[in-house]
Amino acid sequence: MTGKRIFFSLMLLAAAGVAADEHRIDSAVYAWDALEVERQGARERRSVFKGSTAGFEYFEVHASTVPPGAAAHAAHTHDDREELIIVREGAVEQTINGASRVLSPGSVVLLLPGDLHGIRNAGDDPATYYVIRWRTRGFDGSARQDAGSLSADWDDLEFRETSKGGRRSIMRVPTAMLAEFEIHTTLLNPGMKSHDPHTHVEDEIILVRYGQVEEMIDGVPYEAGPGDVIFLEANGSHGIRNSGEGPCEYYAFKWRLP
Predict the structure, then answer these.
(1) DSSP 195-210
(2) Are 135 and 56 in contact (CB under 8 A)?
(3) Can you tell me the distance from the alpha carbon of 75 to that of 92, in angstroms, rounded to the nearest whole number?
(4) Which of 143-147, 172-176, 210-214 has the lowest mean pLDDT?
(5) Under a CB-based contact definition with an 8 Å cutoff, are residues 29 and 238 in contact?
(6) What predicted TM-score, i.e. pTM, was given to this entire model?
(7) Domains of the chain, CATH where assigned
(8) How far apart are CA 98 and CA 80, in angstroms?
């Protein structure tokens, strides 16, 4: 069977007596359709995974859906973690240290420790966005070389056509915790692969924006579709190709520790 989807439930980990923060996250496809929906008032929350990786003592991904005009919570700060927002559906207003900006679907926000931030639905329809949070081991806030929190609106991103499809470069910056954080999108035409299976010393995340992909993980093919999150452990073999009849596009992001 060439198409597989796998999803690891934190509920099962808890039942086994394993603390979520201590759970080592495995390379896997975390399918959107398999995520449990937790209703918190008017908000919907979908936990994707939570645990640790080779480079992070804490790493978590979830998605929030909020109705028009609403916010998941009040503006706040984090002193011990960094956060990435990826807007899946709807328009949102992102506020960072008092400056607000309306962002379209597909937009990306990087939030660094100590910066006051908040997000609300600025459109007429429900808005859904992913939240990716991490904390490196031994972070104490010293020796920071980052340029602060920043956002990239989808409508402002330049699309560069390639022989396989295209690419949008979004960010490549140092952060408070990371020597480098990089995120881009790749568009693949039907039947095209981004590259042959390979390994690297960094963890990596793939988030499928639209279309169907096949991700090879340690020699085993897994299917993924819109909204699915693929986590790839450091030093594990992986490669991705378009397995659908139309184009596909996905975010790819990885990081380099100091």
Answers:
(1) S-SB--SS-EEEEEEE
(2) yes
(3) 14
(4) 143-147
(5) no
(6) 0.89
(7) 10-142 (2.60.120.10), 156-256 (2.60.120.10)
(8) 21
